[in-house]
């Protein structure tokens, strides 16, 4: 699990615009959040495991990235000009950078990653949080050593 986390953290460190990257311990739910925005939180889950041989399992891995941005400011309505609205929507450039980094990524440890959905969390604290789960597969041999 450590190697996977370090891999995904390293990938996020290559994305322009992120100031804080950590495991997801629900930091966005603390008031005020103990992060520097824009922030990325990583959650890794083995959602399905199947025995292949003694000590080896085939695992389906769900990597959920939560991207947090400064509190929402109402500057996207029809009351604002295009330049103001475009600036308020700039966080989507960071989201796109994360998507491009993770979608279809693969290496010798994991198979090709695939985004499963993308949504904005509905929140009452005015934080903008975009949730992107990615799925991949790997063979877990950690029981062998």
Keywords summarizing the entry:
145 residues, STM4215-like, 3 helices, 21% helix, 34% strand
Summarize the structure.
By secondary structure, this protein is an alpha+beta fold. It has helices spanning 2-13, 82-88, 91-102; strands at 20-23, 39-53, 56-69, 114-115, 119-120, 128-140. It has a single domain (2-144), classed as 2-Layer Sandwich (STM4215-like), CATH 3.30.2000.
CA-based shape? elongated
Straight-line N-to-C gap:
14 Å
Percentage of residues in helical conformation: 10-25%
Count of individual helical segments: 3
Notes on the structure:
Helix content is 21%, strand content 34%. By secondary structure, it is α+β, with helices and mostly antiparallel strands. Strands 1, 2, 3, 4, 5 and 6 form a 6-stranded mixed β-sheet that branches. A hairpin with a 2-residue loop joins strand 2 and strand 3 (56-69). The radius of gyration is 17 Å and the shape is elongated. The relative contact order is 0.21.
Show the helix and strand layout.
Blueprint: H1 2-13, E1 20-23, E2 39-53, E3 56-69, H2 82-88, H3 91-102, E4 114-115, E5 119-120, E6 128-140
Parallel strand pairs: 1-2
Antiparallel strand pairs: 2-3, 3-6, 4-6, 5-6
């Amino acid at each position: 699990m450590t190697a996977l986390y370090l891999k995904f953290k390293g990938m996020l460190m290559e994305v322009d615009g992120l100031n804080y990257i950590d495991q997801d311990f629900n930091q966005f739910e603390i008031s005020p959040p103990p992060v520097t925005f824009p922030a990325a939180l990583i959650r890794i889950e083995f959602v399905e495991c199947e025995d292949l041989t003694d000590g080896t399992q085939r695992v389906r891995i769900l990597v959920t990235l939560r991207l947090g941005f400064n509190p929402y400011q109402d500057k996207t309505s029809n009351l604002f000009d295009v330049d103001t609205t475009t600036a308020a929507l700039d966080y989507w450039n960071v989201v796109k950078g994360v998507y491009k980094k993770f979608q279809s990524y693969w290496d010798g440890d994991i198979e090709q990653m695939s985004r499963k959905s993308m949504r904005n969390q509905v929140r009452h604290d005015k934080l903008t949080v975009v949730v992107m789960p990615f799925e991949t597969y790997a063979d877990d041999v950690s029981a062998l050593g």
